[in-house]
Amino acid sequence: MATVNDLLREKAERPVLTIEQGETVLSATQRMNEYSVGSLLITNGGRLCGIFTERDVLRRIVAAQRNPAETRVGDVMTTNMACCSQETSVDDARSIFKTHRIRHLPVVGSDGGLVGVISIGDLNAHLANDREVTLHFLNEYLHGRT
To answer: At what angle do helices 90-100 and 120-142 cross, to 10 degrees?
Structure first.
């Protein structure tokens, strides 16, 4: 059975994007735009302490009429976040995405350190590829080519 670690390997060339909690929301959104991502993991001295998403920008900055150049990302980040381990199965990860209605899932190691992050898009791409392979082999089997 596939695990979250398999998903991380598929996207190994992409860096995990983080920003320190003392940085401004303006810096965070500029970084998100630069890398075309919908979230950043927030760290405090290198330790994961939250996540900042496009949803946070809309709800806690725009709707609250806060100045992004003066607001610290640590003041508006989401701290109550779901996480998983590298050993989490893809099915369990899918359940986490669905249950918590999230699009980004930090992956932490046994020591609590940040290992990576997967998105619902990563999960969907993996599942689609897996199904394509299965369909290919079933088609080959049905036509006697295996």
So the answer is: 130
